[in-house]
UniProtKB/TrEMBL annotation:
Protein name: RNA polymerase sigma-70 factor (ECF subfamily)
Family: Belongs to the sigma-70 factor family. ECF subfamily.
Keyword Translocase attributed: no
SUPFAM superfamilies xrefs: Sigma2 domain of RNA polymerase sigma factors, Sigma3 and sigma4 domains of RNA polymerase sigma factors
One of the GO biological process terms: DNA-templated transcription initiation
InterPro entries: RNA_pol_sigma-70-like, RNA_pol_sigma-70_dom, RNA_pol_sigma70_r2, RNA_pol_sigma_r2, RNA_pol_sigma_r3/r4-like, WH-like_DNA-bd_sf
Cited Pfam families: Sigma70_r2
Boundaries of every RNA polymerase sigma-70 region domain copy: 12-74
Keyword Transcription: yes
PANTHER family per the UniProt record, alphabetical: RNA POLYMERASE ECF-TYPE SIGMA FACTO, RNA POLYMERASE SIGMA FACTOR RFAY-RELATED
GO molecular function terms attached to this record: sigma factor activity
Keyword field: Sigma factor, Transcription, Transcription regulation
Amino acid sequence: MKDKAFNNQLLEYQKILKNLAKRFTKDQEAINDLVQETFIRALKYMDQFFNNPRVVSWLFVIMRNIYINQYKRLSYQQNYDDISLYYYNQNTSTEPYSEDISDKRMMLGDISKILSDMPSTHGEMFNNYIDGYKYRELSEMYGIPEGTIKSRIHIIRKTLQKRLNMKYSA
């Protein structure tokens, strides 16, 4: 019964949260996504909320953190895209598949192959790390301690480095 009451209480704040979300974005779809993700996180962590009359404040903090994390991920991806575009534009060849681009594609293929040879969660975990997820977020995602995540990411990096060095320095 506690869960149902909490759900109903959350729904009462939907309009307020949408108005608060307008502080972060003007895009209606992004506002709806932000509110929905806030509700999902609130439900996930409702056991950490103690019948405090400041539910809206708690929900706003969750929303703000979600927005900040999304912004960081997008800016990280944008930087990656900018770097890729920079290197693509540095290629002066008029051939669509020049040697430089082909080498990069081949290396990306080799990285994918190395990751696919690892246990499935390791490759997925590394890709999520590259996508900008924090160690703490990965720990929650995979249900394992943060130290284990750090260790696995380190091992994956070293494995990639070693195998790519063997292939490309020979």
